[in-house]
């Protein structure tokens, strides 16, 4: 009789004397039943290596029979200021184990809740099957948040059910330590910004990112050309090519001085990526990027919306700084399109939008075959962070993972065990699933709205005919 999945597989073919402690178990019907090898008792035991039996004794999860595991519930706790607002989800099962996921920062928990009745009764260990069932309910940017939250929680559950870390289920590790890059908002002058970045370096961070762009110079006469009366809000809601905003030579010089002052403080050796240039036209993007060549930036991020790949390619072909995008792209297909067009030097998925752990690994693997490296965007709680850490560990072309919360004091303790960075690196844990659980003592003090994984019966009955074809 074959071993039951999730108990323990007992390889055969070796005859090794058993230690007394193990022999005492041999022949006990209940013991072998718990291992899923039936009542064969001593005849099976004689074929089992001693070390395998000892491992079995330690690893059998008597609460979990993965093939019979069923999803019974989906609940939400909405966290504030992590630094973003982030809905956490908990998926419960019929065997008393729960898995956790996180809806993309800034998104509504509704994106996850509307999936509840579509996953109830499913086996959470069938991660890809469930993902394919629900992925039609995801979309780009925050709209992907619900599907990805569920996918994270499924890996957490599958890992717990089988007793292995999520990265192991993805194929195993390429690395134990995950290089982090620190996001740093753009404020003040370049020297001050350099000092903030220097603090990151002192904490062990080995890869930096900062924001700089037209919002730093918008009040300087003659730095940018803007349609008269256009507000910053109007500009923020208009895609880059359609704002009519261009940077003047004076503006380019000011931003160059800013980055020069930063490099003056931090030196040229450490990688320095950049983001949030403002909604400017393609020619301004090219002028700005050319001015940055001498500062050797690690990348310039989202210079135009990813939905405009021809413009992205125009910029990429014209400049000598790596061009990167991807944090708002849902699923592999649009990454494939950008990569095949030659529109990017690097990709930058956020797995809370891209489709979760497995889809992000697939995206990375596709890029790898075409010589494109993968950095990973992240701006949430330690739940999504750990999902990213597992994926980063298991994806060969990974370069660095964003950490957006180095200044949030309670962030490390939002889970148990607490996040412990090794300088500027995260450590891929050996614990099952994602390897962390939400810490209610800390998180209950940081709820966006009342409720800690309260019942959600209002989402039990939603009905629709979901098939996308006839
Ligand atoms: Mg960004």
Describe this structure in words.
This protein folds into three domains: 1-60, no CATH class; 68-163 and 453-459, Enolase-like, N-terminal domain (Enolase-like, domain 1, 2-Layer Sandwich), CATH 3.30.390.10; 169-442, Enolase-like C-terminal domain (TIM Barrel). The model is unreliable at 1-60 (pLDDT under 50). The chain is built from 19 helices and 16 strands. With 470 residues, it is an alpha/beta fold. The longest helix has 18 residues, at 145-162. The strands form five sheets. Strands 4, 5, 8, 12, 13 and 15 form a six-stranded mixed β-sheet that branches. A three-stranded antiparallel β-sheet has the order 1-2-3. A three-stranded parallel β-sheet has the order 9-10-11, with helices on one face. The protein has helices at residues 20-23, 29-35, 42-45, 50-59, 110-113, 116-119, 127-134, 145-162, 166-169, 190-202, 232-236, 249-266, 282-292, 309-318, 332-341, 351-354, 356-369, 382-393, 440-443; strands at 71-79, 86-93, 98-102, 177-184, 208-211, 224-225, 246-247, 272-275, 300-301, 323-325, 346-347, 374-376, 398-403, 415-416, 425-427, 437-438. Residues 275, 301-302, 327 line the site of magnesium ion.
How much strand? 5-15%
Helix content: 25-40%
What's the domain count? 3
Derived structural class? alpha/beta
Low-confidence stretches: 1-60
- Can you count the beta strands? 16
Mean pLDDT: 89
Tell me the overall shape. globular
Which architecture of the largest domain would the CATH scheme give at its second level? Alpha-Beta Barrel
**Number of separate helices:** 19
How far the N terminus sits from the C terminus, by CA atoms, comes to 42 Å
Query: Which sheet architecture does the biggest sheet show?
Result: 6 strands, mixed
Question: CATH homologous superfamily of the largest domain - what is it?
Answer: Enolase-like C-terminal domain
Rounded to the nearest angstrom, the radius of gyration is: 25 Å
Q: What are the distinct ligands in this entry?
A: magnesium ion
């Amino acid at each position: 009789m074959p071993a039951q999945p999730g108990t323990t597989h007992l390889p055969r073919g070796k005859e090794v004397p058993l230690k007394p402690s193990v022999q005492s178990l041999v022949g006990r019907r209940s013991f072998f039943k718990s291992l899923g090898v039936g009542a064969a008792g001593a005849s099976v035991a004689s074929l089992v290596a001693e070390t395998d039996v000892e491992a079995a004794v330690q690893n059998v999860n008597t609460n979990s029979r993965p093939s019979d595991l069923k999803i019974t519930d989906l609940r939400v706790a909405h966290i504030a200021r992590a630094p973003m607002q982030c809905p956490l989800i908990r998926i419960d099962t019929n065997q008393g184990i729960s898995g956790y996921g996180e809806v993309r920062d800034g998104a509504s928990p509704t994106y996850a809740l509307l999936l509840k009745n579509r996953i109830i009764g499913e086996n959470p260990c069938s991660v890809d099957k469930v993902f394919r069932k629900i992925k039609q309910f995801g979309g780009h940017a925050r709209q992907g948040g619900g599907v990805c939250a569920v996918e994270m929680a499924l890996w957490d559950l599958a890992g717990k059910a089988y007793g292995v870390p999520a990265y192991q289920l993805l194929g195993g590790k390429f690395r134990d330590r995950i290089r982090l890059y620190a996001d740093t908002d753009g404020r003040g002058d370049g020297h001050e910004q350099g000092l903030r970045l220097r603090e990151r370096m002192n904490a062990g961070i080995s890869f930096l990112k900062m924001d700089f762009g037209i919002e730093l110079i918008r009040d300087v006469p003659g730095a940018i050309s803007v349609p008269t009366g256009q507000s910053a809000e109007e500009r923020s809601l208009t895609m880059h090519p359609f704002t009519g905003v261009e940077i003047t030579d004076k503006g380019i010089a000011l931003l160059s001085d800013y980055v020069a002052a930063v490099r003056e403080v931090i030196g040229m050796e450490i990688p320095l990526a950049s983001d949030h240039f403002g909604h400017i036209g393609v020619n301004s993007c090219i002028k700005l990027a050319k001015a940055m060549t001498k500062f050797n930036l690690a990348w310039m991020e989202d210079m135009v919306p990813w939905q405009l790949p021809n413009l992205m390619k125009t910029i990429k072909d014209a400049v000598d700084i790596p061009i990167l995008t991807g944090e708002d792209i849902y699923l592999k297909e649009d990454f494939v399109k950008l990569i095949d067009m030659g529109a990017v030097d690097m990709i930058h998925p956020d797995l809370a939008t891209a489709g979760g752990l497995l889809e992000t690994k697939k995206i990375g693997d596709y890029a790898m075959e075409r010589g494109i490296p993968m950095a990973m965007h992240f701006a949430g709680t330690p739940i999504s962070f750990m999902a990213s850490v597992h994926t980063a560990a298991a994806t060969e072309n990974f370069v660095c993972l964003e950490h957006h919360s180095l200044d949030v004091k309670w962030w490390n303790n939002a889970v148990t065990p607490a996040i412990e960075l090794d300088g500027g690196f995260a450590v891929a844990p050996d614990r099952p699933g994602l390897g962390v659980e939400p810490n209610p003592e800390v998180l209950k003090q940081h709820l966006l709205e009342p409720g800690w994984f309260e019942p959600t019966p209002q989402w039990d009955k939603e009905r629709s005919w979901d098939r996308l074809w006839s």
